[in-house]
Specification:
heterotrimer; A alpha+beta; B mainly alpha; C mainly alpha; A: alpha+beta; OB fold (Dihydrolipoamide Acetyltransferase, E2P); 2 domains; five-stranded antiparallel β-sheet; about 35% strand; B: MetI-like fold; 15 helices
Chain lengths: ~375, ~300, ~300
């Protein structure tokens, strides 16, 4: 049985379509009131996992507990979940009010209770003026609010979001993102949120589960995932532009451990090793914003590089460099922009870097 | 696991599709099974289970009427599908030239398809009737030696069937191919124009190959129609003159009704099924392999 | 800089050549356009003339027809042939005209269309959203049925229907039409539902709706377009049917097409062309009206029925 305070517990869940394994012996415990984001590239199994939790897909093996109750073979409606879909999935021939009340009417909830719940949901989501409209007469943002409302009126413990903001334009997306965050703070429900957008994941989540190939790669708080990725995939998937990777070897000499590549030699005295280091092929990774440009020689590591392309982004500037033969990206503040072709000095502290085993990809 | 029977066979879904189960299994499996079974018996008016091996098939292939029917269906099929395709494609291409009154032309080309093949057959029977139709009209106009009576000549009657078939069906071919033409990306045409490729060449080398799907659809539709051609023959020629325009579909119905020879009729019906089975098996194999490749790619 | 200099140093007389476009200006009406319209108009005549002949002939008296001017407009238009065709034309010994056939066709078509569409929409819905083990095999068999020559199935059906006493009855012919309409209609509805967003179905399931409730409250209201297509397809198909009518309906239920063929092809003695042609037009009238009223829907119906077939 699930531990106390656990809202959703997934144990050894596997899902196969024929010979294809989509999810592999997956385990996940979501605490009461927690906001979990399932993040990953398309085809990683994150939406599939959400559908399994909802009961919309029959799993091959394992079990699912919600609020301590084994719901593995339960119908979706009996699992105590509400779900918000990417395409909103509003019933086109029903008004907003009927859309919200459909599930309650199916369940035979008394009329005054239905009215009460709709009024509450409409108030929270500020969709009262829209109740008599049909979905076709709503804007994208309004539709998404109604879709959330449909989950809200069900009065459930767990909300499932399946890429709810992907169909919206950038401005609306950031607005609704904040609204969802506020909603979570207000309701204190458990929320499981699927997205491929790392900004949504970083901003919303209490914990992020980064998925790939039907396996959860890392499950941690956003900052931990960002700063201490457990493997090269997680490191490369989060962050834009992506982390700089240099392939080389881990070596040890009199001054301690060093990372050696064709053109650079980085001392690792400040690096906190995850595992006992062994000499061998290694990948060194450092995020663009952890590299300083033309800021003196006080860094444990400094080098000279040539500016290839400068991309002003408004608030800051991306500088694409050539460090020997290596491509290197650095993020600097907008006012400190170098010119194309200029030779610049770079410096960083390996404390902020990540080292990965070249073959296994796991963090060292 | 405790995965329940309920989830594998969702009961309401099974109940809702009982008619489908009955039709798919009862008619298209068991029914056809019986047809094939009876083709090995000596059944006359009513089915019997007196098995005679391949005797019915031997008798069938010795029957001149059946041989004529088989010849006719090949000839009719090849002629009418080819003509239909060529004429339908031409119509579609001409319709696609941003012409005025497109809807009017479309209505005119398509309306015969709304009519029964019986009606089609009768209409053309009259147009080609030597005492009433074109021949008589031309003679009355003063061309007294004009002779055009394809339906009374055993050698030409089948051409008349082909013409009537085109009249009824080429509008549909046009509609399908026109939809295919319109589905070709506008920018393909622009690219070909910028490259200086002549229009006819664009059609032949670029656009037609892109319309594989539409051609296949039109082809399948016509093939199914050809194998089933019955009403048209009955209304237009009754299989005559003599047995000149008999077709397998007509032959089978005659055997099980007028000539009361169910055994041989079922043998003929089985022979009709055979090419369909072979084509479907090939198509199924191709689709299955494609699915396998796709699944492996997931 | 350099470009400006080149232009300036060019001889003066070249400037106008650069200003006028190359090639001839496209004419509004080219020879090609005329050719296109000529082809289309000749083709249109090919499609129109037979029916023109029928209409004018049906309005002529027999003496005028014997003169043999097939294309002439009727000199003395009369609707008597139409009245005769409807009320008095003879099929063998009965001389009640086509009207009984019309009512028979009505009695056959309406229930057949309704029942076959109900069955097929449930099939398509179940196959798309609730596929049970073996459902796809069933669907495969059904699609196979769409290609099977009718002749292979007719005799077993005769035997089967006789054994339950439904051969040569109205319910019998309705069952037959439902059977033979099922493959194509199921395909039609399945493809329609398969193109619908699955999330709608999932949302309804989370809302707790089951098989029938989702079908009736969510799917059916959204199925109007495909149902219109299916109705057009089925009404024309069943109204125009001849083979099943003559085999399965029984003499007293013979549909209009069968009656028409009997009137025209089994009459002895003088052939009353005007009556025959009026009868033919009457038989074609129902599907033609549907065709002209439905317009583009009809085309869509054919395309929908065919494209995925």
């Amino acid at each position: 049985m699930a531990a106390n305070g656990t809202s959703v517990s997934i144990q050894d869940l596997s899902l196969n379509f024929g010979a294809v394994s989509v999810l592999q012996t997956l385990n996940l415990d979501v605490a009461e009131g927690e906001f979990i984001v399932l993040l990953g590239p398309s085809g990683c199994g994150k939406s599939t996992l959400l559908n399994c939790i909802a009961g919309l897909l029959d799993i091959s093996e394992g079990s699912i507990f919600i609020k301590g109750k084994n719901v593995t073979w339960e119908e979706p409606k009996d699992r105590g979940i509400g779900m918000v879909f990417q395409s909103y999935a509003l019933y086109p021939q029903m008004t907003v009010e009927k859309n919200l009340s459909f599930g309650l009417r199916v369940a035979g909830v008394p009329k005054d209770e239905i009215a009460k719940r709709i009024a509450r949901a409409a108030e929270i989501l500020q969709i009262e003026p829209l109740l008599q409209r049909k979905p076709a007469a709503l804007s994208g943002g309004q539709r998404q609010r109604v879709a959330i409302g449909r989950a809200l009126v069900r009065d459930v413990d767990v909300f499932l979001f399946d890429e709810p903001l992907s169909n919206l334009d950038a401005k609306l997306r950031s607005e609704l993102r904040v609204e969802i965050k506020l909603l979570h703070r207000k309701l204190q429900n458990t929320m499981i949120y699927v997205t491929h957008d790392q900004i949504e994941a970083m901003t919303l989540a209490d914990r992020i589960a980064v998925m790939k190939g039907g396996v959860i790669q890392q499950l941690d708080a956003p900052q931990t995932i960002y700063n201490r990725p457990v493997n090269r995939f997680v490191a490369g998937f989060l962050g834009s532009p992506a982390m700089n990777f240099i392939e080389g070897r881990l070596e040890k000499d009199d001054s301690g451990w060093q990372f050696a590549a064709e053109d650079v030699r980085i001392p690792l005295s400040t690096y906190a090793f995850e595992t006992e280091p062994v000499p061998g092929p290694t990948v060194f990774g450092i995020r663009p914003e952890h590299v300083a440009l033309n800021s003196g020689s006080g860094w444990p590591f400094t080098a000279t590089a040539t500016v290839e392309v400068v991309e002003p982004m408004g608030s800051d500037t991306l500088v694409w460099l050539k460090l020997g033969k290596q491509n290197f990206t650095v993020r600097v503040t907008a006012e400190r922009t170098p010119h194309n072709g200029e030779a610049v000095s770079i410096g960083f502290d390996p404390m902020r870097a990540s080292l990965f085993d070249a073959a296994a990809g796991s963090r060292i | 696991m405790q995965k329940s029977w309920r989830q594998r066979f969702h009961l309401p879904a099974v109940i809702g599709t009982i008619p489908m189960i009955l039709v798919a299994v009862g008619v298209f499996v068991i029914g056809i099974g019986f047809s094939v079974l009876w083709s090995f018996t000596s059944s006359k008016l009513f089915p019997t289970y007196d098995f005679v091996g391949l005797a019915q098939y031997r008798r069938l292939w010795a029957d001149n009427r059946w041989l004529v029917s088989v010849n006719n269906i090949w000839f009719f099929g090849l002629m009418s599908i080819t003509c239909n395709m060529v004429f339908g494609y031409l119509l579609a291409v001409f319709m696609d030239q941003r012409i005025r009154q497109e809807d009017l032309f479309r209505s005119i080309f398509l309306y015969p398809f709304a009519m029964s093949l019986i009606v089609t057959g009768l209409v053309w029977q009259w147009v080609l009737d030597p005492n009433l139709g074109l021949q008589e009209t031309m003679r009355n106009l003063g061309w007294s030696s004009f002779s055009f009576a394809p339906l009374v000549d055993a050698n030409t009657a089948i051409y008349a069937l082909v013409v009537a078939g085109i009249w009824q069906g080429s509008g549909v071919t046009m509609a399908i191919l026109l939809a295919g033409l319109r589905g070709v990306d506008e920018e393909i045409w622009k690219a070909a124009r910028v490259d200086g490729i002549p229009t006819w060449r664009t059609h032949v080398s670029i656009v037609a190959p892109m319309m594989k799907g539409a051609f296949a659809t039109a082809f399948v539709l016509q093939s199914v129609g050809v194998v089933r051609v019955y009403d048209l023959v009955i209304a237009m020629t009754g299989g005559g003159p003599g047995i000149a325009t008999s077709m397998p579909a007509v032959y089978v119905i005659q055997l099980i009704t007028v000539r009361q020879n169910v055994g041989q009729g079922m043998a003929a019906a089985t022979m009709m099924l055979l090419p369909v089975l072979i084509v479907l098996a090939l198509a199924g194999l191709v689709l299955w392999r494609r699915n396998r490749v796709q699944e492996a790619g997931v | 800089m350099s470009a400006v200099q080149t232009t300036a140093s060019r001889p003066m007389q070249e400037a106008p050549d650069q200003a006028t476009p190359f090639g001839p200006k496209p004419r509004r009406i080219s020879a090609g356009r005329i050719g296109i319209y000529a082809f289309l108009i000749v083709a249109a005549l090919f499609f129109l003339i037979p029916v023109y002949i029928m209409v004018v002939t049906s309005l002529k008296g027999m003496p005028e027809i014997r003169l043999g001017h097939l294309f002439n407009l009727p000199g003395d238009p009369t609707f008597q042939p139409w009245a005769d065709a409807w009320l008095h034309a003879c099929t063998g010994r009965d001389c009640n005209g086509l009207s009984p056939g019309f009512y028979n066709s009505l009695k056959i078509t309406v229930p057949s269309v309704v029942i076959s569409i109900i069955c097929a929409s449930i099939n398509g819905y179940a196959l798309t959203f609730w596929p049970y083990k073996g459902a796809n095999l069933l669907f495969g068999l059904l699609v196979f049925g769409a290609f099977v020559p009718y002749q292979v199935v007719i005799y077993p059906l005769i035997i089967g229907l006789s054994s339950v006493g439904l051969f040569a009855t109205l319910p019998g012919i309705i069952i037959v039409h439902t059977i033979f309409g099922m493959p194509i209609l199921t395909l039609l509805f399945r493809n329609f539902y398969a193109a619908m967003p699955v999330e709608l179905f999932k949302a309804a399931r989370v809302d707790g709706a089951g098989f029938w409730r989702i079908f009736i409250y969510i799917m059916l209201p959204m199925s109007v377009p495909i149902t219109v297509v299916a109705v057009i397809l089925q009404v024309t198909g069943i109204w125009n049917d001849f083979l099943f009518g003559i085999v399965f309906a029984g003499r007293s239920n013979w549909p209009m097409t069968v009656q028409l063929n009997n009137i025209v092809n089994t009459t002895t003695g003088v052939r009353e062309y005007n009556v025959n042609m009026a009868a033919t037009i009457l038989t074609a009238a129902v599907p033609l009206v549907i065709y002209f009223v439905s317009g583009r829907w009809f085309v869509r119906g054919i395309a929908a029925g065919a494209v995925k077939g």
